[in-house]
Amino acid sequence: MTTSLAAVPRDxxxxxxxxxxxxxxxxxxxxMLDRYLMGDVERISPEAPVPVVTVADERVVPGGAANVxxxxxxxxxxxxxxxxxxxxxxxxALVEALDARGIDPSGLxxxxxxxxxxxxRIVARGQQVVRIDLEVTTPLPDRTRSALxxxxxxxxxxxxxxxxxxxxxxxxxxAFAAALIASAREVGIPIVVDPKQRHFFDYAGVTVFKPNLRxxxxxxxxxxxxxxxxxxxxxxxxxxxxxxxxxxxxxxALVSDGKPLRRTPSIAREVFDVSGxxxxxxxxxxxxxxxxxxxxxxxxxxxLAAAVEVGKSGTATVSPGELVDAWEEAAG
Length: 332
Prior knowledge:
Structural class: alpha/beta
Number of domains: 1
CATH superfamily: Ribokinase
Low-confidence stretches: none
Mean pLDDT: 92
CATH class: Alpha Beta
Shape: globular
Number of helices: 10
Number of strands: 14
Helix content: 25-40%
């Protein structure tokens, strides 16, 4: 059986938004720098059959776990961000971008000889022409990961939720993930993980496990139908209280122990760019649960926030005011 998630009432939404603005959230994972070079194309290169983009504007924004932190700051929460960057210009730019958003970058460990993970998108006339990734995905040095774990243990007791953002860029490993989860469970806060393939099955004990459908099917090596027992088997195998499956244009599916499969369709809005939408969902689910939301409420609110985010250009955030406007539009 499948049911639909009920919309969160306006007064309940206001209460949760007020609570979310008072939360402190621990974010641990792979941080990135998202760089946008925007311009126009008027000719083809004489050197090769490729467009020549004349850059007119440049924008840098936090990406990955840093984008989760930026989303938390935009909704009024206080993020505590832990990750690793290189001792390079991109790392400096990421620190500056976080500072500009009121996010303390002191939890980012500098690793000499390792570049800051960065994604450079070249955009012409509103269309992405190419993306250039600079990254190293080998594991962090043991001393760096130990320092990050010590930092997490030092602050987790004062946080309302733990968000783990795994992009397979080397920050997370099995032992680190298990130690983070144990620390959060010890203080009784919700844990939300956004996984990738390398450590997909290493997050047993989390509150919310949030892959997309393609990632889930790739990890299990099978196609998942919509029947409850198929996805319930996956949730049990992953060891999560809730499996939150993002389905793109079809919204999200929530699988919880002892509950029917619950679905929330995507909110009908113009989709401009899906970059960073998953980070928005992670941030809003975690902050809502930290503020006392039930899982169904948190998912419905996050789904609405994602609908706002994909209507923006590039990696972006969502404010409480924008969410309320979207609620009123959906209600209307």
